[in-house]
Each structure stands twice: as structure tokens, then as C-alpha cells.
Design goal:
The protein is mainly alpha-helical. It is built from 24 helices and 13 strands.
Length: 549
């Protein structure tokens, strides 16, 4: 068969010589040992924790080695493309401080672009035409119905499903049959003529999992679809070569495709990049571990963390804890160091599933937020509120001095020990809401209505907003004694049966009356921030009608 003639019939016209692309996209001039890595999502509109997991690993690997991280958009499947998805990817990753050096919508050195695969169609066709001309690819005219029937037949015969060997019908078409189908206008795809054998095993060194064995590819995969657009497998091999990718870190679900990718690099005459397949993110479900699921687990989506208002550094700290076995120990020793100073190593990435624990992330987030100044916390909350907050919450920022007092108290900024009450921006905004208007009580009083009213009335009779904390608390203790409660905690602990409660119970009533919560920061300080007039109004509103007169 005249393969060159067939190549011209299938892909007519002049395409650049392949040497042209080698010259246009030369090896990068980088320091010895520098890695070129990439993130290459599809524009589906859903970016998840696994993407961030891989993005951090790729970013740290590239920048720790003095290399390059780029963003490529794999948009060969037009049916899955969602408008605005690329911008959503960039926005989500930027929120978590993933710094790309170049790529789609990034700027930087565009010498290796374009970064959208659909804009690189001519490149893929040139390589496909070369493969056809060398007898390494061929047209396949099988319809979807015929392929479905083939799968049914293979299943019935208990064979591996796919287009290979004796089942690759169009592989054996004669020259006359091919041209007859073309003359009849039958649609076709271009398939790789695989030289592999499923009986053969390949030894491969995975940068994360170590030495592994995979089965050689024997599938005649599609490399160009009927519209002339490449499949993911074909496009990624060409792009990784021409963009001079040295290391591909990706999810372990891609291990099944590794034999295909290795064969593609070989038949295209490219040097293979290094591959590292990172472990999946898992969670406990009852007593068993399972992979995080898009359908079951809202925390898989990165949008979940932005909507909830997780502090980006906290998420990154937790991801690094899962990614590198020695990060947690390093971070305990150097909590104030930039994360970039940690020496990330691919070989220290986990080989098996990483257990994702939202409670542990919450602990890390609370710790990270507690280390901010009141001003830094205010800025973090403001940025979140502008995008996700309610109109009422946006008004919290109208009096910055007042807000800083609130945050300073709630974070323990002025105290000897920082509080760790805040976990996310959304939760923090809910936590401080009572400073901007008291709603219904969240916690119930643990005393009778009559006792509650007596406590509030007696407190209001002696309350003076100018009292310092010591005088204020002294009055609360006197009030406790007058109502038969233990004024000193040691008295109550010594003989609790003698009292209906202690001064702590008195304070709890006043706390709920003023804030709606049984547990808050220092109550005197809260009343100082609210001011005497607001405090009195709130306490008065908690009295029964008779007591309020």
C-alpha cells in the first residue's frame, strides 16, 4: 500500500515538516535538574480537590527545582466544554496561591503556546499525517453501532473489550476497500496501528510509586476523531513533548492509560517524560475507606472551600501534610516560615491513598486564623464577604474601628493566649453577628423564667458602663450572693448541694441575654464594645412583660 498517498488523501494539503515544530519549540534553557511541570484540566466547570492536590505537587516540584509550571487547557472534547470554566479554574487555583509561570490566560513566556489544544489542531494533524505516511496509523470506518456490537461479542466471548488484534477490522482493509469507503463519503477516525502485545510486560519507574510493571498496549486507539480533532491521548503526548514537559504528576487513575502513552511517545519518536502517579484522596465512610466522590462529598469541589471561606494557607498546609511525609514535622518547627522554603520532594509523596479528614483541616484552619492580626483577619473576611456574604454582613465593615475591636476580642489579640474560635470566614461572620444586632437566642437558659428575670433585673439596677472589669465582676458576685448562688467558685465546688448554682450561672444568664450564646469571649469586654445603651436594651428585651415595667 502507498501510505504516503493515503496520508495525502486523508489529510490533504501542505503541513509543516516535523522538524519545523522541533525548531519552533526548542528545549528550554533552564538550570540543570530543573523540572517543567504542568496542570492540564479540561474546561468542564468542575475543579476539585484532586486538581489542587496535583497542582501543589507540580508547582512545588517546578519551583523548588528552578523550573517552570504552566497551564494547558485540554479542550479537545467540545461536548464537555462549559463557558467560563477556564476562568473558574484560574480563579480557584489563584485563591490557593498556585503560581503559574505561563499558560492559558496567564501571560508570561508564550513561546510554547498556544495553550488551548483546539488552537493546536494543525500540529496534531501534521504528526498524524506522518504516522499514516509511515504505515503506523490508518482510517477506521466502524460506526458506533458496529463498535457496540463488537463490545457485546467480546463480552460474550469473555474477551478483553476494545479495538485490537483480530477485532480491529479496519486494520486489515485492503487499499481498494479503503478508497471505496472514502469515495462513498463514509465518515472515519484515524487509529494508531499498535505494535504492542498484551502478552508482554513493561517495567517502568514511577517517580512516586517506584518500579512498577504494566502490560504493553495493544489497542488501536483513536488519535484523530472524525472532525479532525485529536483525542486526549494523542494531543497530550505531542504537547508534553513540544512544551518540553519533563515530569508529569497526575492521579493514579491514569496508570491504566500509561501503556498507551508510552507507546505514543515511542512511535512519535519523542523522549518520554518522567511520570509520577499520586495516590487518591480518600475518606472514612463508617469503618471503611473510600475515594472522595463528586456525587457524595461536597468537600471534593474547590468551590466548597471558597464558599465556606477556608483560609487558603490553611488548605495548602493541609494538602502539603498529605503530600509529603516530613512536612508536618517541618511545619511544627517553622510555623512562621513561608511555605515555599519547605524542600518538597516527589519521592516522599505517598504511594497509597491519602486519608482526607475535614476535622483535621478545620483544626489547621483555626490555628492558622488565630495567628492573624485583627487587621489581617478583617481583610480576609472583607474579601470573602464581598463575594459570598449577605447584604447585612457587608455592613459590618462600615465602621472599621468597631470591627477591629470585635475581632481583637474574639481572637484574643490583646490577651496572653490566642483564641481559636474561627475556622472559616462564613463561620466567623456568623460568630460575630451578635455584635451587629442580636437575633433569637441560640442557646437556652438553664434557669427558670422567674430566676432569669430576677438575675437580669438585679444586674440592670446596678450596671454602670464605666465600671472596670474588676468592679463589674464584683457587682456580679454580690448579685449572685443576694439570689442565693455561690459568689465564689471554690464555695460552690466545696458544697454544690447548698446552692442553686454559682456565679458562673449568673454570668451565663447575662451572656445569653446580651449575645444569645452561652459561650463567648469575656462578657465585660463584650458589653464594653456594645456600649451601655445597647447592652441595656438587649437585657431589657429579655425580661418578661411584668419585669420589664
Amino acid at each position: 500500500m502507498d501510505y504516503r498517498k493515503l496520508a495525502e488523501r486523508l489529510l490533504p494539503g501542505q503541513y509543516p515538516e516535523l522538524s519545523y515544530f522541533e525548531e519552533k519549540y526548542p528545549p528550554r534553557e533552564l538550570p540543570k535538574g530543573a523540572e517543567v511541570t504542568r496542570l492540564a484540566p479540561s474546561p468542564t466547570g468542575f475543579i476539585h480537590l484532586g486538581n489542587l492536590f496535583a497542582a501543589i505537587a507540580n508547582e512545588r516540584t517546578a519551583h523548588t527545582s528552578g523550573g517552570i509550571l504552566y497551564l494547558r487547557i485540554e479542550d479537545t472534547d467540545a461536548k464537555r466544554k462549559v463557558d467560563g470554566a477556564v476562568e473558574a479554574v484560574i480563579r480557584a487555583l489563584r485563591y490557593f496561591d498556585i503560581a503559574f509561570d505561563e499558560g492559558a490566560e496567564i501571560g508570561g513566556d508564550n513561546s510554547y503556546g498556544p495553550w488551548y489544544q483546539r488552537e493546536r489542531a494543525e500540529i496534531y494533524r501534521a504528526y498524524a499525517k506522518d504516522l499514516i505516511g509511515r504505515g503506523l496509523a490508518y482510517p477506521c470506518f466502524c460506526t458506533e453501532e458496529e463498535l457496540a456490537a463488537l463490545r457485546e461479542r467480546q463480552t460474550a466471548e469473555k474477551k478483553i473489550t476494545g479495538y485490537y488484534g483480530e477485532y480491529a477490522r479496519c486494520r486489515f482493509l485492503s487499499e481498494e476497500e479503503i478508497y471505496a469507503a472514502l469515495d462513498a463519503g463514509k465518515p472515519y477516525v484515524i487509529r494508531l496501528r499498535s505494535g504492542g502485545n498484551a502478552e508482554h510486560k513493561l517495567s517502568f519507574h514511577d517517580e512516586i510509586k517506584g518500579d512498577i510493571t504494566v502490560t504493553e498496549n495493544d489497542q488501536d486507539i483513536v488519535i484523530l476523531k472524525s472532525d479532525g480533532i485529536p483525542t486526549y491521548h494523542f494531543a497530550h503526548a505531542i504537547d508534553d513533548h513540544l512544551m518540553r514537559t519533563t515530569l508529569v504528576i497526575r492521579g493514579e487513575e491514569w496508570l491504566a492509560s500509561l501503556p498507551i502513552h508510552l507507546e505514543l511517545f515511542d512511535v512519535l519518536g519523542f523522549r518520554r517524560p518522567k511520570y509520577g502517579h499520586n495516590c487518591s484522596l480518600q475518606k472514612m465512610d463508617g469503618g471503611t475507606r473510600r475515594k472522595l466522590s463528586k456525587r457524595k462529598d461536597p468537600e471534593l469541589s474547590l468551590e466548597f472551600y471558597r464558599k465556606e471561606g477556608y483560609f487558603p494557607r490553611a488548605v495548602k498546609v493541609y494538602m502539603l501534610t498529605l503530600l509529603n511525609s516530613d512536612f508536618e514535622e517541618w511545619y511544627q518547627r517553622f510555623p512562621d516560615q513561608p511555605l515555599e522554603t519547605f524542600r518538597f520532594q516527589v519521592r516522599k509523596m505517598g504511594k497509597s491513598g491519602a486519608l482526607f479528614d475535614l476535622d483535621k483541616l478545620n483544626d489547621i484552619s483555626a490555628n492558622e486564623l488565630s495567628r492573624l492580626s485583627a487587621e489581617e483577619m478583617a481583610e480576609f473576611l472583607r474579601a470573602w464577604t464581598e463575594e459570598y456574604g449577605t447584604e447585612a454582613q457587608k455592613k459590618y465593615f462600615s465602621d472599621r474601628e468597631y470591627l477591629l475591636k470585635v475581632l481583637g476580642l474574639c481572637m484574643g489579640v490583646a490577651g496572653k493566649k490566642r483564641r481559636k474560635d474561627f475556622i472559616t470566614a462564613s463561620q466567623a461572620m456568623d460568630k460575630i453577628a451578635y455584635f451587629f444586632g442580636k437575633g433569637k437566642n441560640t442557646d437556652a437558659y438553664r434557669v427558670s423564667e422567674q430566676t432569669k428575670n430576677q438575675i437580669i433585673s438585679s444586674f440592670l439596677a446596678r450596671y454602670d458602663g464605666t465600671d472596670d472589669a474588676q468592679i463589674w465582676f464584683g457587682k456580679v458576685k454580690v448579685l449572685a450572693g443576694e439570689l442565693g448562688f455561690a459568689a465564689e467558685m471554690k464555695e460552690y465546688k466545696a458544697a454544690p448541694e447548698k446552692y442553686p448554682g454559682s456565679v458562673a450561672d449568673i454570668a451565663e444568664v447575662l451572656r445569653i441575654a446580651a449575645t444569645g450564646y452561652a459561650n463567648t469571649p469575656d462578657l465585660w469586654s463584650i458589653m464594653q464594645i456594645l456600649g451601655e445603651e445597647e447592652t441595656r436594651q438587649r437585657l431589657q428585651a429579655e425580661l418578661g412583660e411584668e419585669d420589664a415595667k
